[in-house]
DNA sequence: ACAGTTTCCCGTAAATGC
DNA sequence: TGCATTTACGGGAAACTG
């Protein structure tokens, strides 16, 4: 009997829920009122087991959650290994608390919902050799959420738990007094997230920039509150994971996105490079995941590093980043345009890197002339000489119309010079970090 | 007693459901499993009514739908008029049919769900002067849907019913054998839809274009199947209503959108006008609602009318139509740009019409140079002379880089000429309607 | 296979509770 | 009042079901 108990205690529990299609590979999070499937696997099928064994899933009732349906099921023979298995489909969790008596019960006094750890238990009763056996198996700790907006925090808990508690017994009260993680541990989990979402881990420079968000010294412990609470760095990182998943998988996998570089380092890196060199970095202020590009320009013996406002998910769903880079233009009142992006840092030709991802679009479709949205930075009418100290105008600069300007006999070098001079002027007019 | 019955039979029924916020003013459509509120109003409160009257909502059980909750309620005194009223909140409809026995029952044999007309009845029992009175009131016919994608069809039914049956008795089997509508009737309902959504009715030209979608002769009857069945014109019109609601209310209200003009008429109208005159029309092929602009250009004694591919809702949610018009550019390899849109038909200066709706956007934000997505039509490198008969290339034309072309000493007139020549070339290369 | 119909569920917004 | 948590439901897609 003790053997049986041991075998069943080692049972595997697998959950599948559509929630995982949102950000993939996020098991151990269940959403209330959403269907999922649990499977209990009994690793051996001893010949003595003649009678059918019935298992029943049970949810801990700590908080008032319970299964909406939890029927007994007979364990079937697993095809390849010969083990015993039962799959419980169309299960879901309901909050059974009455609107009035929703007081959190014991183990979770001061914890947030996403810090509560729950388990699914399986109980089986059967007779063996005249003995009544009562055995149990339980899942890994789960987090139960009621809305998708809780998933990032819930996943933080799952990661933290699994870095700390890899062996039994389960400590469901871990977050009542959460131990810290070393940077070595945390950086590993973080890197795995990028591997899982974007098929590429974080390199040492990226990790080093992230480290600064948590601790000054690589040896300092990182506390749970610093990681996951109020306006935490994790929420920012998770927004970027989602951005990669939805719009940047290819570029991330190829390693074209440095991503985690602050402005200071961006400047330092680009300054050394030739005009037109650029790099891609994630916005540090946008918590929903956004990406931007910076490029360097040398002229008149001066060096300038320019930054463009970040591309949001909404914009990327209209035009992909490779296309944005391909079509980005500076545009002056002279109605001349120029793409300042030439080489991906350190010196990869832009088209070599991104060319395979440009979306070709015909010129004509169903008799229409094709119009595309193009990323453009507009320059104002007259910024030279001696720019007026007025703040940036609120009136959008007029496009040129049919009556084209007549001063078109400028030379190309002068145009480039003018464009950059204005960029510099604009940049100086703002507070930089 | 017959007086009482009459009074209650005239009761008003009002439904409120969040569904109405999707497209507003679409009452008489209820979605299963979504909460709504019904109010029954008894128009008089005779002094003899001493005892409280209880009313109870009842759903016709034709199809297996029923209320999830339908408690009795006592009629209260209505504040201003002195009438009796009861409001039933948090009601919802559930499909009680067993997954096995979902056979449609009698009155709806061959009808689609959105052609089934249901009513909510209110029944009240009370004693008056020793007599037991059993009275009823019922709502206008309702359509019950299970998904928002059924709303356009459902609304078609509601409109059709209400054009035909303005008086009692209710004919719930109307769509078993639906009578036709005259164009006069239909055009009126359609016009009301635009009034309701966009605060402006359809004018005679717009109606005349729509009429051609239904009948050749204004006196021909319009049949239900022509209006609402398979790939019907109504679904197309409804997509445009939604487009107006979400992105074009202002422009529609101002009358800047001709909208319903076919290509032939577009050409005829614009040909007479000066170069740069344009008009806005709805895409006739996109069923989800899309809008495009066409403009005229005279050069070399030839006249060309150009059409741009339609703007979808997704694009409009990134940039509004006034901004798209304001920033639209033709762009040549010379990297010179030009906006061909000057006058809204017949001769309104573009900025006079749309200027108030341009969104100003600063040049700099948080130290970033602001980048905008701009609508641009790209021209290919060399289209002159004697354009090669090859099909439009699949390779997107390369943007210019820092190494600007050296042939910049062209004159503006020549550029304009070149741009239009290519447009004409492109247009001729495709099959036009 | 297929179309009409319903369910499922994410993501946003609003409501609710504490 | 503010924050944490839950509910509501539109919209797109998948699943159902005859």
UniProtKB/TrEMBL annotation, chains A, B:
Organism superkingdom: Eukaryota
Principal subcellular localization: cytoplasm
Any one biological process term the GO annotation gives: signal transduction
Molecular function terms from GO: DNA binding; DNA-binding transcription factor activity
Residues of the SH2 domain: 252-358
Key words of the record: Activator, Cytoplasm, DNA-binding, Nucleus, Phosphoprotein, SH2 domain, Transcription, Transcription regulation
Cellular compartments per GO CC: cytoplasm; nucleus
Compartments where found: Cytoplasm; Nucleus
Similarity section: Belongs to the transcription factor STAT family.
Name of the protein this chain belongs to: Signal transducer and activator of transcription
Organism: Larimichthys crocea
